[in-house]
């Protein structure tokens, strides 16, 4: 570390902290120094490493649609954005779309969402049951009227590859990374003046970004004397094989929330637990019952050859669950002059990392949003309890 004072200190070097560092250091109007404090350079337990890596625009709030569009365009061109020494990183982006299967009951809401997505520039089409049958003859669709499919800018990629690319680029353009644990903040009046670390002691900060993720963002906020409604919620993922060749196709959301997508020669799949079986937890044991009781029967009903699925590997990670409305919390903490937060993404943080990195940069450098207006995702709504409801959360 070259000094003990930085213009911006970021606590947490996952996809959010690293995206913020990259966007800040790339901003022509910003000449300051940036330090990212990350306690685990292997990233073994962070959410980013365990994410599915989906990106979509099939949301119900304009902000999430626009964030998803910006995210997809960034991810598709990640080689140009994050190139270092003529090396273009690859994150294996697959633009194969999301297929959201509807039910008659859900159709009014889904149609309304679809109209909004189109209005904001997303390329999502409605496929009638007959269209689905023609496009995916291996799928049973008699139980659904049809589905919504993203033709462009939706799909998946390697989230860890993205994190590594952000970090490499952020360092190449001057960000310092410190392998240490932040253990406290020093607040003077309305300012955070320093971050205390376990091994490197006190580091003075011009501004602090709390990007500490699912298990720590609320704790870091407490050090500043404020609070955030973010807690870790476990999400299990199953890598499964099938004796017969796997059909390809998009990332599919079933009406009951089961999701699945190709993963090489395997299928990656999962489902969120029911709300009353979804406590805050810091453990990582996958919930195998979800595969047995929900995921497998659902997939086997949809695709008959999936009756013979076999679990090859299962793992769990943590959503940074925002208990108020499961939407991102991005902005300057009210009442504090220099304490920014970017957390609470509740399952969408990787796809939202490009827009979030840019948004935090705009706030720090310009004092307000220049591109997507994310004021509705600010901390103010948390303090007033006015939820921004998103119906497209899975
Ligand atoms: C199973 C699963 C599937 C998902 N699928 C998707 C998906 O398809 N699309 C999508 O967009 N999102 C998805 N997500 C959500 C996404 O992973 C998260 O929203 C996102 O990774 C959050 O990024 P982050 O940088 O805030 O947190 P993290 O990646 O958790 O990074 C936070 C970092 O902060 C560090 N840290 C914390 N406290 C301290 C401290 N005191 N000092 C130093 N370092 C500290 C941690 O070590 C960690 O590396 C999924 C998540 C899971 C678990």
Describe what this molecule looks like in 3D.
The structure is a single chain. This protein has about 400 residues and is of the alpha/beta class. It has 2 domains: about 5-80 and about 160-230 and about 325-385, FAD/NAD(P)-binding domain, CATH 3.50.50.60; about 100-155 and about 235-320, 2-Layer Sandwich (D-Amino Acid Oxidase, Chain A, domain 2). Helices cover about 30% and strands about 25% of the residues. It is built from 11 helices and 18 strands. It has helices at about 15-25, 45-50, 60-75, 80, 105-120, 130-135, 160-170, 215-225, 290-300, 355-365, 380-385; strands spanning about 5-10, 35-40, 55, 100, 125-130, 145-150, 155, 175-180, 180-190, 190-195, 200-210, 230-240, 250-255, 260-265, 265-270, 310-320, 330, 340-345. Strands 1, 2, 8, 9, 10, 11, 17 and 18 form an 8-stranded mixed β-sheet that branches. An 8-stranded mixed β-sheet has the order 5-6-4-13-14-15-12-16, sandwiched between helices. β14 (about 260-265) and β15 (about 265-270) form a beta hairpin. The mean pLDDT is about 95. The structure holds flavin-adenine dinucleotide. Flavin-adenine dinucleotide binds near residues 16, 17, 52, 211 and 349.
Break the fold down into its secondary structure elements and pairings.
Blueprint: E1 5-11, H1 15-26, E2 34-38, H2 47-50, E3 54-55, H3 62-76, H4 78-81, E4 98-101, H5 107-119, E5 124-128, H6 129-135, E6 146-150, E7 155-156, H7 159-172, E8 176-179, E9 182-188, E10 191-197, E11 201-210, H8 217-223, E12 230-241, E13 251-253, E14 259-263, E15 266-270, H9 288-302, E16 310-322, E17 329-332, E18 339-343, H10 353-366, H11 379-384
Parallel strand pairs: 1-2, 1-11, 2-8, 4-13, 11-18
Antiparallel strand pairs: 3-7, 4-6, 5-6, 9-10, 10-11, 12-15, 12-16, 13-14, 14-15, 17-18
This protein binds flavin-adenine dinucleotide.
